[in-house]
Amino acid sequence: MTPRCRDLVYKFILNIGEAINQSTLCCQAVDVSASIWIQYIFQDKAYFHQAVATSLKYNNSEFEKGGNAAESLRHLSNAISLINNKIAGKDALSDTTIAAIVGLIGHERFQNQHQTSMIHFKGLQRIIELRGGIPCLMTNAHLVDKIFRVDIEFALYNGTTTQFHIKDVPGQILSELRTTMRHNKEQQMVNWNFTKLLIPDLQDVLSDILILAYVLNNHEKVPMKLNAYSYQQIVILVSYRLIQISQLATPRLTSDLENMIHLALTAFTTTLFLGFGSVALKALLLVKLLRELAQRFQAHDAETQKVLLWVLFMGRASVFNDLGDWWIVPKIREICIDLNLRTWEDVRNILSRFPWVGSVHGQSGRSLWEKSEDNYILLS
């Protein structure tokens, strides 16, 4: 390995470490050196080359220096060539082949090469079928989690159902967490009247997401500790459940309230996936639908005003960019006046009763509140 490649691999390992052990999520740290994604770099040439190409692309300051685009392309070409050789040979169905393809898809998604990544995803599905399906891969749980993550990304991007079945997604960690938190009075779901208007499946997933948010916000006093992997399994499972309830391209929920809560919960989960730079999943259809609903939704009482307030803040903290502040800020200001919310603390107390993780969403929330205050002063 050349010194240059060694440096890029080192950066890739650092990126993985930062992604797995995100300090903002307050999960128990895991030993990154034991990660399969580190091991595969040294075990498989195809995975090695896509890792180096990804490292070059991800570290933008490095990538923009002369020659790095060509170097990245060279490693990517090597990766594709080696993957094709593996598929044509005895290693076609191996874990390392699957890992290399998953890594390649991630690289392409990072580059917004959606059509190309879809082609490779279909190939990945075929290999998994030939292996006997997801259950036959469960001995490599971290690889399966990455496959599920890719499946969720495509389902959200295309607005379709997932390609793998929810029955194959492990649920033991969430069940244990649910049992652990059952008698925690602080965590008890707020007795909102609006929840009675939601279908049972949506009520259940809202309850589980509230448990997860509580654990992330109160990790020091919660008896059950999550590490990055157990945490990620919970996020994957609730994401599959949300997609099963209603797909973005063919919404099946009947009321605006149900649809808006479903979309806001989906937006919430996109901020919790572990990944390079903690970049939220790119789901343009989700942005469009949530924006349209939030703009037209008519809150008829104080409780639904609080729901809309959370939706606006969550949308801004997840999938909306600051170009949408021109319509979000006046709505927030109007609700805050109606509810007599005078400070960020007042607003945060409302948000904390919904799915909201202070370490992840707090900075964006405070910034949006300050904009709404400035807007109010300007118009006064």
Task: Write up this protein.
- The structure is a single chain.
- By secondary structure, the protein is an all-alpha fold.
- The protein folds into 3 domains: 130 residues, no CATH class; 112 residues, no CATH class; 92 residues, no CATH class.
- Helix content is 66%, strand content 0%.
- The chain contains 17 helices and no strands.
- Helix 1 packs across helix 3 and helix 15 crosses helix 17.
- It starts with a helix and ends with a helix.
Order of helices and strands: HHHHHHHHHHHHHHHHH
Tell me the helix content. 55-70%
Global morphology: globular
Largest sheet: none
Number of domains: 3
Continuous helix count: 17
The share of residues in extended strands comes to under 5%
Which whole number gives the mean pLDDT?
Answer: 87
Pfam family, one: Fungal_trans_2
Protein name: Transcription factor domain-containing protein
Keywords: Membrane, Transmembrane, Transmembrane helix
Organism: Hyaloscypha variabilis (strain UAMH 11265 / GT02V1 / F) (Meliniomyces variabilis)
In short:
With 380 residues, the protein is an all-alpha fold.
Name the descriptors.
single chain; 380 residues; mainly alpha; 66% helix; 0% strand; globular; transmembrane helix; transmembrane; membrane
